[in-house]
């Protein structure tokens, strides 16, 4: 699914991406932590992560932080491969289906949590137009990640 | 976003083994009832929003139309251009309904019954659309109140909205 189109998402997403990658946002990994707090059933995939018993435990958990970093790095790759997401995410899709057994509904949840985090960080800059471009991207990533499911 | 598939989880707040909560009056079909903490957080935020709820619901509508263009199909009779007075008027209607819901957290299905009937029988809005507006309202509030938008508040608001959505869809069939 190509991303270039009526919203010129490259231009809009590029604007947000520049700040998206600054070190303190990346190290916060808030999107992933927030997913586990707001939708607690997503913790089911992370039994081996140790203490997830409270929001502060989740925030302080080093494995959550590390995994959040992996996810964010993948998202960075998505932005570089916007015209070819299904190919770019083929291996990851197979992994999430065959080894990790993750319901693709969760990809949509994470995508929407990311959009909300972006809104808290960028405020006025996160205009409806910018949000619309990001919704397209997170939706396309969710679809690409689910593409190899069988 | 795929139109046929709702973005919200199939069972929004599944009761987990060992969970103490039971479905209360506000539980309806949406799973766990709103806890005392959820209600307190939502009420506190609503107090903070004061008379500006309409401003934010209007922005949420604008965001919904841009991010999820299929939702515009229900508003072909309105001027949807930026700053439209008609969208603002509709935003105020949504605000009034949500404020009513905040006042009647113990009795959402009854409080929203007439609205549900309207959406089901007259407007015939696909209920998959409601969470799209709900999401955009969360985005709007996150953008305007970033310091307040903790994971706990987001979770409580998300639960509240899913109960409102469930009440709104209750008369569909």
Automatic annotation (TrEMBL), chain A:
Transport keyword on record: yes
Can you name this protein?
Hemoglobin subunit beta
Q: Which residues form the signal peptide?
A: none
Q: GO MF terms on file?
A: haptoglobin binding; heme binding; hemoglobin alpha binding; metal ion binding; organic acid binding; oxygen binding; oxygen carrier activity; peroxidase activity
> Where does the Globin domain start and stop, copy by copy?
1-150
Name any GO cellular component annotation: hemoglobin complex
UniProtKB keywords = Heme, Iron, Metal-binding, Oxygen transport, Transport
**Tagged with keyword Metal-binding:** yes
* Pfam families per UniProt: Globin
Species the sequence originates in: Piliocolobus tephrosceles (Ugandan red Colobus)
One Gene Ontology term from the biological process aspect of the record: hydrogen peroxide catabolic process
Question: Per the similarity annotation, which family is this?
Answer: Belongs to the globin family.
UniProtKB/TrEMBL annotation, chain B:
- Pfam families from the UniProt entry: Globin
Name any GO cellular component annotation. Answer: blood microparticle
Please, which domain of life does this record's source organism belong to? Eukaryota
GO molecular function annotation: haptoglobin binding; heme binding; iron ion binding; organic acid binding; oxygen binding; oxygen carrier activity; peroxidase activity
**Domain Globin, first and last residues per copy:** 33-173
Q: What is any one GO biological process for this UniProt entry?
A: hydrogen peroxide catabolic process
- Region ranges (Disordered): 1-24
Identification of the protein by name: Hemoglobin subunit theta 1
User: What is stated as this protein's family in its record?
Assistant: Belongs to the globin family.
What PROSITE patterns does the record tag this protein with?
GLOBIN
Which key words tag this protein in UniProt? Heme, Iron, Metal-binding, Oxygen transport, Phosphoprotein, Transport
């Amino acid at each position: 699914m190509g991303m270039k189109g009526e919203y010129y998402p490259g231009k809009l997403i590029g604007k947000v991406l520049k700040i998206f990658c600054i070190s303190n946002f990346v190290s916060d990994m808030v999107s992933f932590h927030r997913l586990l707090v707001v939708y607690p059933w997503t913790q089911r995939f992370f039994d081996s992560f140790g203490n997830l018993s409270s929001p502060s435990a989740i925030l302080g958990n080093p494995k959550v932080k590390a995994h959040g970093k992996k996810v964010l790095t993948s998202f960075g790759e998505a932005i570089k491969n916007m015209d070819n997401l299904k190919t770019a995410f083929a291996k990851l899709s197979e992994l999430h289906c065959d080894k990790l057994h993750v319901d693709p509904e969760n990809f949509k949840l994470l995508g929407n949590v990311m959009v909300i985090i972006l809104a808290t960080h960028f405020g006025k800059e996160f205009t409806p137009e910018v949000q619309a471009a990001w919704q397209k991207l997170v939706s396309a990533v969710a679809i690409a990640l689910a593409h190899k499911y069988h | 976003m795929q139109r046929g598939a709702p973005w919200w989880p199939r069972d929004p707040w599944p009761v987990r083994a060992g969970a103490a909560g039971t479905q209360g009056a506000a539980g309806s079909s949406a799973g766990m009832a709103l806890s005392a903490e959820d209600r307190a957080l939502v009420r506190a935020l609503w107090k903070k929003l004061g008379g500006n709820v309409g401003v934010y619901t209007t922005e949420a509508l604008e965001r919904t139309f841009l991010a999820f263009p299929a939702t515009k199909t229900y508003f072909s009779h309105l001027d949807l251009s930026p700053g439209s007075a008609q969208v603002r008027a509709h935003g105020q209607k949504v605000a009034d309904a949500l404020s009513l819901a905040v006042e009647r957290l113990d009795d959402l299905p009854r409080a929203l019954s007439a609205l549900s009937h309207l959406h089901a029988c007259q407007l015939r809005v696909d209920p998959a659309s409601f969470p799209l507006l709900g999401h955009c309202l969360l985005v709007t509030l996150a953008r305007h109140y970033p310091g307040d938008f903790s994971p706990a508040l987001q979770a409580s608001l998300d639960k509240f909205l899913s109960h409102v959505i469930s009440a709104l869809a209750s008369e569909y069939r």
